[in-house]
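Morning!

As promised:
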Amino acid sequence: MKEIIILAEHRRGELRDVTWEMVSEGRQLAKSLGAETAVALLGKGVNGMAEALKPAAHRVLLIEDDRLEAFNSETYEKVLVQLITERKPFLTLIGHTAMGMDLAPGLAARLKMPLATDCIGIDPKDETFSLTRQIYGGKINAEVSFLKRGPYMITLRSGAFPVQERDPLPGEIVPIPSPLTDEGLARRFLQYVEAAAGEVDITQADILVSVGRGIKDAENVPVVKELADALGGALACSRPVADKKWLPKGCQVGTSGKTVKPKVYIAVGISGAFQHIAGMKGAGAIIAINKDPKAPIFSVAQYGIVGDLFKIIPALKAKIKELRK
Amino acid sequence: MNIIVCVKRVPETAEADVTIDKSGKDIDKSGLVFDLNEWDSYAVEEAILLKEKLGGTVTVLSMGGEDSNESIRKCMAMGADDALRLDDPAFAGSDGYATAKVLAEAIRNIPYDLILTGTQAEDDGYGQVGATLAELLGIPHATLVNSLEVKEKKVEVHRELEGGLEEVVEIDLPAALTIQTGINEPRYVSIMGIRKVAKKEIKALGASALNLKPEEVGLSGSDIRLEKVFLPPVGGGAQMLEGKPEEIAQKVFDILKDKGGLA
């Protein structure tokens, strides 16, 4: 029977959400393809995770090895080249994450397997797949097809596939011997480090005013900071503002920054790249101010203002000062 | 320290009004400004910082038509020494994999210690070229690098993970690294700076010079093909607040009170 291999992603002893998203999507695909799902779980002391995954897939392929304690694309590639060569899955699913971006391209090239990265939709079609991806920073969607015959590899965007409740499967855990040896590695994992915390903890604020690329220049940032102050809220930002060092990294909202859930989130000059939205979509209410009426931020916001932030922000600040007196 | 940086010229779309062209397979690029891919500008800056510290050369590689010379010259004005443009009608339609193949063949003829690429491109966003390139060249790699330090025959890098976490890994040289935005502050390039490098030669190589057969590159050498593009479906859609700035301000104030955010 055809098999879909799903690579479990975990870090510091915890399965990551994208694993469950892939398992859910994999079950859906398996159903329409008449296939079975197998979760490949690589790690050290991950029996608990294997047990947790067991009811969600037809089987868990468990590869335990001390050398697999932390992710390393070099060790992962060695293990997966052997596993995929032996099991010949019709499809391999990997997260388009810091882990998958590091692993999938090399693995696919080594296996000479066609790869489609960062997909947000997968439709099986005549022994192949039609894929949906986002291009131009999420402003445009693209339908993409494979030019080569399978087996295929697809990386899935984290947060793009819903986790659906399904009947548990009997499942089984299949231990597989690790092919790794003590042979030296060209890449070695050393340690994890936490990014330096900012002065203000933006995850604790009830009102967050968040500033993006639309602010144009570092010297304009205080305009938005004054609004945040007038509201008794905190100032946050999207990635481009932190990249340019206009605000500290600790203020950054999004996949690689903080996930926030304030009562109100005001997005100022933020177009709404997926990575940003992933970090703030849980806010109670979202108000977006952007000059581009097509900015993706308006599809997640409850309230939208199309216009020049340099006119709207001062007016808002003045109004708030007046009304809060 | 000899460093190769792979770059791409892309349309700037972050702040632009983007529409779909008549073919339905791409955006209308007629009114758009093109520039060096943002991730690549950080990669070039990082290469030049390393050169300034350790000596050596920086060579820029770009797959693209003559238009790409503009972005390549920007890299040279920043401080890159040499450049090579990979240009052939057969390269058209290359996906991430086919692009990596072309770059790999060009790199085989150049001595290097380190290859830098941007983590991804602003346009197609595959995020795969750097890591594929490393595999094709048989060298180790690390993606999403947001800090690095060269130590003897190895490089210690920080990789940006999710949620503010980073991992530190050590890699033997030669290696390929994909650079994340924010790793440095790319230097400003003046018009004078561009003028100074306007006469510098940018050599162009085609498929045959790289010993690549037409069927290995472009669309026929690719894994995937773009079939059509469309505007993303709009979610629930925001309720739009309209009026003069003062009127909008009043509405926002009411929302803030109503949603409990404003005490």
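The first helix of chain A runs from residue 17 to 33.

Hope this helps with the figure draft.
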